[in-house]
Amino acid sequence: MPEATSDELLGRIRLHGRIPRHVAVIMDGNGRWARDRIMPRTFGHRAGMQSVRDVVEGAIEVGVGALSLFAFSKENWQRPKPEVSALMSLLEEYIQREADALDENGVRVRVFGELERLTPPAAAAVERVTAQTAGNARLDLNLFISYGSRAELVRAARRLAEDVAAGRLRPGDVTEEAFAERLYTAGMPDPDLLIRTSGEQRISNFMLWQLAYTELYVSPVLWPDFRRAQFYEAILAFQARDRRFGKVTV
Ligand code: IPE
Ligand code: IPE
Ligand code: MG
C-alpha cells in the first residue's frame, strides 16, 4: 500500500476530531542525520530548520493551540564552541527569515529559558519576534532555548519563597496552581502529546512538571526527516490513545 499523503492524514485527523491542545517536541537527531551524510553536525541543524517550518505549518493546519519546541537545552551549552555558535546563528537566522510569515499566520512566538546566556544578536532577535507577534492568537509557538526543566522548577520555587518572605503569600497558599503560575508555561494547558524524534526514550530535562499526564510518542525518524506527514502520524497515534488520568474508564 502506498504511504498516505499529508492531505490524507489530515483528513483522517479531522475525521477523528480530538485535536491536542498542546503538542511538545524534543527535536533530536540532527547530528546523526549529518553524520549519515558524512557532513558536519551543523549541516544537520540547518536541515532541521525546514522541519521546524513544516511542523509549525502542520500544527496550524490541524488546529493545535500551542506547540512547544525544545531547540537548545541548558546542557547543550557544554557542546563544542563552534557547534554552540552555529546554533546561536541559526536561531537568529530562523527568526529573521520566519518572523513575518509567522506573524502573518497568526503565530505568537515566545522563547523560554535562560535567555541572558544567549549571544546579543540572538537575544535581540528573540526580543524582536516576541514583540512583533505578541498580539497573535492562532498558535502559541514556544521555543525552549537555553532551557532546563529543573532550573525552571527551582526558579518557580524561588519566586514562591520570595512571595512568602515578602508576606505576599502564606505557606498554605503554595498550591499546585500557584506553582504552575510561576513556570514559563503559566496559563497554558499541559501538553497532551510529547513527540521525541531519533528514537531516544528519555525526557532530557524537558518540561518535567508539565508532562505529568502527557502521552509520549517516540519516533525513530531523525529530526531533519521529520516533516508534516510524520507530525500528522504522531497526532493520529495520539488520537488512538486511551487517556485515563488515573481513573477507570467505563
Ligand atoms: C538535536 O539534535 C538538536 C539539539 C540538541 C540542539 P542533536 O544535535 O542532539 O543530534 P544527535 O542527537 O547528536 O543526533
Ligand atoms: C535534547 O536533546 C535537547 C534538545 C533536543 C534541544 P539532546 O541530544 O541534547 O539530549 P540527550 O543528550 O540525547 O539526552
Ligand atoms: Mg541529540
Task: Describe the overall structure.
It is a single chain. The chain is of the alpha/beta class and 250 residues long. It has one domain (20-149, 192-238): Decaprenyl diphosphate synthase-like (Undecaprenyl pyrophosphate synthetase, 3-Layer(aba) Sandwich). Helix content is 45%, strand content 14%. It has helices at residues 6-16, 30-36, 41-62, 81-104, 120-133, 149-165, 176-180, 228-239, and strands at residues 22-26, 66-73, 107-112, 139-147, 193-196, 215-218. A 6-stranded parallel beta sheet has the order 3-4-2-1-5-6, sandwiched between helices. The mean pLDDT is 97.
Overall structural class, as computed from helix and strand content, comes to alpha/beta
Uncertain spans: none
Share of helix, binned: 40-55%
- Kindly identify the CATH topology: Undecaprenyl pyrophosphate synthetase
Q: What would you report as the Rg, rounded to the nearest angstrom?
A: 19 Å
- Which CATH architecture would you pick? 3-Layer(aba) Sandwich
CATH superfamily: Decaprenyl diphosphate synthase-like
Count of runs of 4 or more consecutive helical residues: 8
Q: State the separation between the terminal residues, measured CA to CA.
A: 36 Å
Biggest sheet: strands, sense, closure? Answer: 6 strands, parallel
Rough outline: globular
Q: Kindly provide the name of the CATH class.
A: Alpha Beta
How many domains would you count in the coordinates?
1
- Ligand set: 3-methylbut-3-enyl trihydrogen diphosphate, magnesium ion
Largest sheet, spatial ordering of strands? 3-4-2-1-5-6
Query: Averaged pLDDT, please?
Result: 97
Report the portion of residues in β strands.
5-15%
Number of DSSP E strands:
6
